[in-house]
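Notebook entry, structure prediction.
Reason for the run: the old model in the group folder had no record of what sequence produced it. Starting over properly, with the input documented here first.
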Amino acid sequence: MALNWEDIRYRGDIRDVQELYDSYRIEDYLEAFEANRHHQDEGVRENLLKHGIRLTGQLSPRIFRLHAETAAALEVAGDAEIFCLPDSDMNAFAVLDIREDRTHSLIGITAGALEHLEDAEIKFILGHEMGHFLCGHNRLNAVFSTDERNPKATVLPPFGESLFLRWRKKAEVSADRAGLLVCRDFHAAARALLKITFGLTEKNLNLEIDALVAQIDEISGSTEMIEEAFASHPLLPVRLKALELFAGSERAKRNGCDVLPGTLADDALEDGVDRLVVLSRRYPTKPLDVAMMHVLAMAGVLVLGADADVSDEEVKLLVQQLHTVFTDEPEDVIVTDREEIARRLPEACRVIVEQGDDDAKQFLLSRIAEIALADGALMDSEAEQIHEVAKMLEVPEKVTYAVIVGAAQSVGFRADAKLNRIAAQLRRSLSP
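New structure, fully documented this time:
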């Protein structure tokens, strides 16, 4: 039975890739990038030939055999080249080297991984890396920026970059499924992930996978633990649990991978993985931080509606502030219903009064003032809204005035009202 990659891939991976193509129209850029790479050889393969060892059947019969078995399990031609790199750490990667005459699929795996991983564990790693090829993940790496003049990680705007970085974590879930299809041993797959991530082997850790997978259940019950647990290793517990769900699913069995008991339905599988992935999203968990986010969102909307003209500059700044400081999904926390704001805003302010300090209150008022200033003017009605929020936060009036003036001194009037009028006149005159 032929493997169905659209069936195997995690739906969060598929949806995010589609959004990158639809919202940011990256197809044209990717084609231009690839056309440039055809003519500008970066020597990726030559660099691997120079610093590593290409593992052929003669040099490494074991790895060559495991690679052939991996390709057969994934029903693909085994034309990817594998290189051993001189590094005692356990690691692996996959990369495309685009040339004028062809594109090379290259897999690098360190000497440390080859020496310390068992056959089934290596097959999981090889399957994982080949899974990235088969899912088309590697092509999207072209959006990374290598220009030192660009302070961002990618060529995408802030929201696009945030989406791309979130997607990369979801892509690992799909690639892990490919690895499991190859090794057909959940515990071997989990051991490989643990060894690669932490460098530990059975000498220093009793790899009791069931106990380690259960760790995610304990973490998910504590908001404080979530925030700390995913600070440096955001996905290992999530990946282990997500892979366990897949291993016991109808989807795995439908694609010839019957490694754990269970017949978890497709929707239940993906819903479960969605809940796991949410644990690693950027979203406040402490009550004070949650309250500050909601006060900024609701007070920002009140300032937006304080005068008759809701400018694009004001709206964009509110969304950008929420995105920069609090969450990858600011649109989900913005409330526009006035009755709901009237009910919820005092409650959120009360949390800040009880748990926050003066710096937290002034930080919020400053951000709200910046929104009011974004259209190039501070209206009396906007200032009144800022003072109303300040009263809820129990901030003295003289401090509120100082914060408003400080915001103007710090960021200035972000838009030029006269320039906007000139631009509007030009647009009207150019319209047919």
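Summary: The first helix runs from residue 5 to 8.
The old model has been moved to the deprecated folder.
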